[in-house]
Amino acid sequence: MEEDTVANAIQLFGNVSSFIRKFIFRILSVGPIPNHIAFIMDGNRRYAKKWNLDLRVGYKAGILALICMLKYCMELGLKYITIYAFSIDNFKRRPEEIQNVMDTMRDIIEGMLKEESSIVNQHGVRVYFIGNLRLLSEALRAAAEKAMNVTAKNDKAVLLVCLAYTSSNEITHAVQESCNDANRACHGGEKSEIKEEEEEEQYPIIKLVDVERQMYMAVAPDPDILIRSSGETRLSNFLLWQTTSCLLYFPKALWPELGLRHLVWAVLNFQRRHSYLEKKKKQS
Amino acid sequence: MLSLQFPLLQIINTLSSKPKLLSPNLHNAHLSSRINPHETTSKLPLRATAQDVAVNRTVAGAGSSAEEAVLPDGLRRELMPKHVAVIMDGNRRWAKVRGLPVRAGYEAGLRSLRGLVELCCKWGIRVLTVFAFSCDNWSRPKVEIDFLMSLFEKGVEEDLESFVREEIRISVIGDFSKLPKTLQELISDAEETTKNNSQLQLIVAVSYSGKYDIVQACQSIALKVKNSLIEPKDIDESLIEQELETNCTEFPYPDLLIRTSGELRVSNFLLWQLSYTELFFLQSLWPDFGEAEFLEALCSFQQRQRRYGGHGL
Fold it and tell me: Shortest CB distance from A87 goes to which of B223, B272, B309?
């Protein structure tokens, strides 16, 4: 009896919260809504330390916060969400910590693979794993590729999970591919009698679009907002190429503490600057 | 954003005197919290006197300048950044708020920049990179751009002597092809004249963008591949770093980036090089940036824990 009352109370609270949230989003939607938000989910370990929890529990709290945030973003109407799950630099951490993260990632990916019941499939979310996946274990890489295939037909929203990623690595790869393409184009052309100085000019010039095309993140438009939790104000080698004119927001809350109010604040700041940025884009 | 790094004729007179502390700038109401934790009065110190500044002398180590850097109270020598980058934003807004023409904003911005260069010399910062003119700024009105280019030229001509005297090395990065020929020649001369100076390296980014820097590095590398100097598979992060325009300095990665005027974005400045840079955003407009604001940025920097993705909580 008492349990029923508690369950009813929780459900009522949930319904009221949901109603208030949708009302807030309705008001926000009067202004421009960002298309793509990127998150650096920083602070899980500090959260675990703060509450005297095991590190794994800290990561689990982080996953719950992520699921909530994804839900809010999709309700708001965002099409692209990018998350920084694991940096190449994080391989410097203690082996047990790396294993924790990899195990968590594996659990999440296995959840995505359950075709009918997975959250991503229910909400029509297509998933990309972005990064140097060759640095991951064979099993994890295979699972990631399978998840990308399984969700390939979803078209409501796109979730980009940066795994074994750094911008330097991404840019280096793009430069390498651009040079390969340029090299092929140069040697693939017909051999004719060209003077030496002309040959230099005939060499394909590499343009910005050539490099951009080779980026791992070329599957999505640039983010409109980058949110990094835990108050650290740095990019940590994340989406350096893609965030050149992106709004940066650094709330002090640790990742598991990040909530609706932070998202609303970020979107309000985005709306304030949006008309000025659009004008600048048209000028250039 | 400031598109000029050098003073006008009337400011030249101040250069001939000994290096002195910054004169009070116009102070706007939006300055954030107090900088010096030991300061007990409610007013921010705009000009530190000899009694206020705690002398923090150490013997210069091998490879650093022979001069002893004097740091104000509250800053720790071992935590000073080697390379500071600045986006000098807000000159036009500063002028607009005061009902002045835009050029007055740029002139005021100049004074701030000169003050910052002085402080960097005094506090032992090795490299200062300033975003003077972005590739995107070419879309501004022609009248404004012409004015800026002529000010650039005048500034380079007039300030060179003081750079030589103060042992400041000047380097300019960016796409020079759009600059007037006369300015290009002046820049080359200035770089050549000051190339052996070692007190401070002032890198001025003119007609620059981070993406452009990477693309030109890619182009150089592609040429080397074409000439069989390297294989595509040899292309790695350190090769790209060597080809970027910041290869003119020993410390290409800024430790601290300061952006004024409250804008919360990087605006295509030093893309690759900002991977682990601590970012600091100020509400103040660039002409109001002075010693107090710089101290605030440095204090904030010194309190940060830089983990580079590794251990530590």
Answer: B309
**Residue whose tokens read 């090769």:** B239
Give the Cα separation of A85 and B220 in Å (integer). Answer: 33
Domain range for residue A246?
32-165+222-283
Residues from chain B that touch A234, judged by Cβ atoms under 8 A, are 276-279, 306
How far lies A134's CA from each of A53, A137, A144, A225, in Å? 32, 8, 11, 29
pLDDT score recorded for residue B111: 86
Q: Confirm whether A183 is domain-assigned.
A: no
SS3 B21: coil
B189-226 b/e with 16+ CB inside 10 Å = b? ebeeebeebebbbbbbbbbbbbbbbbbbbbbbbbebbb
Instruction: Give domain status of residue A147, yes or no.
Output: yes
| Position A170 in a domain | no
Spell out, as residue ranges, where chain A has pLDDT lower than 70.
Answer: 1, 115-117, 188-204, 280-284
Global confidence as pTM: 0.83
Which of these is catalytic: B52, B73, B89, B236? B89
Q: Are B193 and B157 in contact (CB under 8 A)?
A: no
Structurally, chain A folds into a number of domains equal to 1
In-domain check, residue A112: yes
User: CA end-to-end span of chain A, whole Å?
Assistant: 66
Backbone φ and ψ for B116, nearest 5 degrees, come out as: -65, -40
Q: Could you tell me the two tokens for A232?
A: 């650290």
Number of C-beta neighbours around residue B313 at 10 A: 12
Task: Dump pLDDT digits (tens) for B236-283.
Answer: 999 999 999 999 999 999 999 999 999 999 999 999 999 999 999 999
Structure token pair of residue B24: 């009070």
Residue A27: CB partners within 8 Å, gap ≥ 6? none
Write out the two tokens for A2: 């008492």
pLDDT digits (tens, 9 = 90+) for B177-186: 889 999 999 9
Contact A248 B279 (CB under 8 A): yes
Q: How far is B16 from chain A (nearest CA, A)?
A: 39
Catalytic: B89? yes
For the ranges A159-163, B39-43, B59-63, B183-187, the lowest mean pLDDT is seen at B39-43
| pLDDT tens-digit readout, A18-63 | 889 999 999 999 999 999 999 999 999 899 999 999 888 888 899 8
Helix (H) or strand (E) run with residue A265 in it: helix A260-283
A45 CB neighbours in chain B (<8 A) are: 313
At residue A90's C-alpha, the angle toward residues A85 and A91, to 5°, is 120
Q: Across the A/B interface, how many CB contacts are shorter than 8 Å?
A: 137
Q: Which of B237, B276, B278 lies closest to A172 in CB terms?
A: B237
Q: In CATH, what number is assigned to the domain containing residue A70?
A: 3.40.1180.10
Six token digits for residue B294: 């710089």
DSSP track, A81-97: EEEEEEEGGGGGS-HHH
A110-145 tens-digit pLDDT: 877 775 667 788 889 999 999 999 999 898 999 999
